Amino acid sequence: MEQVRAVVASIPPGSVLSYGDVAELAGLRSARLVGRILAEDGGDLPWHRVLRSNGTVADHLRRRQLELLRAEGVLADGARIDMRHYRWGA
């Protein structure tokens, strides 16, 4: 859990990663586990910078997540973020 928290905390403003990216960087095999960790213990992290691999956001958090990303200069095309453009390290 601490590895996931460290990776998410290190994503700079204006950048995003996918759940799978975070899992890989944290040495985990499951992107779903990253989602669960963020849901249970990620309130103090920049959780909004973690997206599905196709660039979409969590349905139940869509408005808030897109609002937070937009404030950092990450612009959506509809409800999708261009991962090739905004992915951290890309």
Give the overall pLDDT as a whole number: 95
Tally the helices.
5
Number of domains: 1
Radius of gyration (CA) equals: 12 Å
- Measured between the Cα atoms of the first and last residue, the distance is 25 Å
Helix/strand layout:
Layout (H helix, E strand, L loop, with lengths): L1 H9 L6 E2 H8 L4 H11 L8 E2 L10 H10 L4 E2 L2 E2 L1 H4 L4
Parallel strand pairs: 1-2
Antiparallel strand pairs: 3-4
Provide a descriptive summary of the structure in words:
The chain is mostly helical and 90 residues long. The protein has a single domain (1-81), classed as Arc Repressor Mutant, subunit A (Orthogonal Bundle), CATH 1.10.10.10. It has five helices and four strands; from the N terminus they run H-E-H-H-E-H-E-E-H. The strands form two sheets. A two-stranded parallel sheet has the order 1-2. A two-stranded antiparallel ribbon has the order 3-4. A hairpin with a 2-residue loop joins strand 3 (76-77) and strand 4. The mean pLDDT is 95. This is O(6)-alkylguanine repair protein YbaZ.
